[in-house]
Each structure stands twice: as structure tokens, then as C-alpha cells.
Amino acid sequence: MSSCRELIEKEIDVIVNEFYQAQTSVEEIALLIGDADTLRRLHIAQKKYVLDLFTGSIDVDYVNNRLRIGLVHKRIGVEPKLYLSAVKTLKDIIQKALQRQIVEQGVLLTTFQALDKLLYFDITLVFDTYIRSLITEIETAKERVEEYARTLEVQVSDRTRQLGEKVSQLELAIATVKKLEGVIPICATCKKIRDDKESWQQLEKYISEHSEAMFSHGICPECYEKEMNEVTKLKQGKPKPGEL
User: Fold this and answer.
1) Domain of 27: which CATH number?
2) Domain containing 63: what range?
3) Regions of the chain where pLDDT drops below 70
4) Is residue 17 in some structural domain?
5) Residue 23 pLDDT
6) R_g (Cα) of the chain, nearest Å
7) pTM of the entire structure?
8) How far apart (Å, rounded) are the C-alpha atoms in residues 53 and 48?
9) Cα separations (Å) of 8 from 93, 99, 120?
10) Does residue 193 contact residue 206 with C-beta atoms inside 8 Å?
11) Does residue 34 sit in the same domain as residue 87?
12) Does 197 reside within a domain?
């Protein structure tokens, strides 16, 4: 491959121009490239890429450069199908350039085979980056889901605990609520009530002890009139009913 470098250098401008004419005719790629400044930078980078194919040296720098290409393509959103299509287009253009420069068919065939192997090697490196990047994204997404699940579990636990506390508070409140129910024995004359200990209590005291009710004493109109009549009779010296 290195023996063809000078031949490729003669054709490099034609190769890169033809390549990007083909690429920009694809709407998806044209949108990814964007403006003229980006296209100009891509021209420069593509020239270097093509010439590197014909250095005859595949070292650590070469491999790292291909891995970076994969990372860049993944970051800007170049789908694998677009990358493969671009490699096929570039290979066809380079082969046409070689055909213009190499007359001997045996040498041309050998160069084509070497080019195929090198481009396949590049594709392998780039796709390795694609795959690693996808695996990283999947693992990151998995970690986010697991973290969300852990957070949700804590929240559910907290809500369950809070609900339990509310239930306990409600049960305690229900247990402390005093209510009157059933048959209450009451004196027909004095209206005292008999409690569970067979003790007779004032109506007010009994109800206060067995409910949340409180008493505020007053006097109804009928009782007021009755009491006032009694007071009037006392003032007049009249005995109360039943007095002799």
C-alpha cells in the first residue's frame, strides 16, 4: 500500500471532492454536515484519512485514530448504515483512482485486496467503538433505572411507615373516644343515673365522664316562669303547693 501513496497523493483532491459530492447528495448526511465550514474541515480530515491508508504502517496511533472516528460518528449521530455506505462509496472512488494510475492488472488486483482488508479492519475498529458506546449507554440506563427503583423503594417504605403511624393514631383516637350507648338506668324522679358500680350520679357528671360533652347551665323559659311564680308566692307569704 505504501508504494501507491504517491499515486494517491496525485488523486487526493479528486477523491475527496467526489466523495463529498456523493455524501452531500444524501439528505441525512447533508443535515449532519451542516454548514460550509464543517464541510471544509471534513475535507481536510478525509484527505488525512485516505493518505493514512497508504502509509503501510498500522500502529497504536493508527488504531486510536480509527477508534476516535467511531466515537465522533456515534456522538454526532451517524448511524452504522450511513458509515458503511460512506466506506463503500470511498472504496469505489479510491479504486477508480488506482485504476487511472496503475496499468499492471496484477499490481492493481493486489492493491484492491490490500485496500479491502484495511478498510475492513477500520470498520471493525469503528464498530467496536459503536458497540462499546452502546453497551455503556445501556449500562448507564440500567444504573439509572436501578437507582430509581431504589429511590422508589425507599419512598414506598417511608409512605408505608407514615401510613402505619396515621393508622395507629387513628386507632388510638377511636379507642379514646367516649360514647354513650345501650340502656342507661335513670331515676324517674331525680334523673340521677346508675353507673356500673351501682352508684347513682348526677346526670351532668355521668355524661361528662362517658363522653366529650361539657355542660353550660342555663334555665329554660318554662322553668324560669315556674321559679318566678314561686318567688312571687314567697314574697306574698303564700305557702308552696303541699305546704300546710
Assistant:
1) 1.10.490.10
2) 2-150
3) 175-182, 237-244
4) yes
5) 87
6) 50
7) 0.54
8) 9
9) 11, 11, 19
10) yes
11) yes
12) yes
For CA atoms 12, 18, 21, 26, the dihedral sign is: negative
Is 98 found in the same domain as 24?
yes
pLDDT at 63: 85
Domain boundary among 116, 150, 184: 150
184, part of any domain = no
Q: Decide: residue 111, CB within 10 A, 0-12 exposed, 13-18 middle, 19+ buried.
A: buried
| Contact criterion met (CB below 8 Å) for 123 and 87 | yes
Closest CA to 125 of 93, 83, 89: 83
Residues 22 and 126 grouped into a single domain: yes
- CA terminus-to-terminus distance, the chain: 147
The model's pLDDT over 48-73, given as tens digits with 9 standing for 90+, comes to 888 888 887 788 888 888 888 887 87
CB of 90 closer than 8 Å to CB of 123: no
pLDDT at 243: 53
pLDDT of residue 176: 60
Work out how many domains the chain is built from and give that number: 2
Smallest Cα–Cα separation from 81: which of 135, 127, 129? Answer: 127
Q: Which three cell numbers stand for residue 21?
A: 459530492
